[in-house]
Amino acid sequence: MGTRKRKIGAITTGQSPRRDMVPEIQAILGDTAEVIEGGALDGLTGQQIEQLAPRRGDYVLVTRLQDGSSVHVAEHHVLSRFQGQIDRLTAEGAEVIALLCTGEFPPFRAVRPLVEAQRVLYHFVAGVAGGRRLGVVIPLPDQVEEAVRRWQRVGAAVRVEVGSPFADPAELDRAVGALRQWEADLVVLDCMGFSVRMKQRAAEIAGVPVVLPRTVLARALAELA
Description:
By secondary structure, this protein is α/β, with parallel strands linked by helices. Helices cover 39% and strands 22% of the residues. Helix 4 crosses helix 8 and helix 6 packs parallel to helix 7.
């Protein structure tokens, strides 16, 4: 009789399924868990998604739709939709819920353990980056100020560059190249959209360790599976 797989609920800011991301998480989990997915933008039309676009002063999230395109939304527009997905996946038997976004969120209501990618990533980096030169790559210029504020807390010198995982790969190359010139000791690709292949490319350019949120999160989830 086989070992029962635990169900892990995975919620993206965009639309599910995330075929670009979840298989890489599942590869680390192996046969110990089954990932069931939900997206904060599931079921919405293009016109409805346009109405969630950020305005000046909004906290901006960037994510991926089912057709592979990227979209920017204001966090406050999707909080209730995140909560709805948490409730749905819990009702479907998820024993752990993971938020597949490195943005910062207010508390959600959850009766099962809720694992936020941003919190896991932050505490992992804080544990290894103290006193070192920390380079960070984020998707959008609008996120620079927030990223500097967040990562300066780890006690390291910080430099933030923009390079989206959803744009021309040359943009990421340029961002990581700038961090190498700055002599970063460690690089963080601060978005769940960055892939294992992008991490490998960034490590080749940077010449230093590169931290990838989706694999850090997956290893934390494996401890709970």
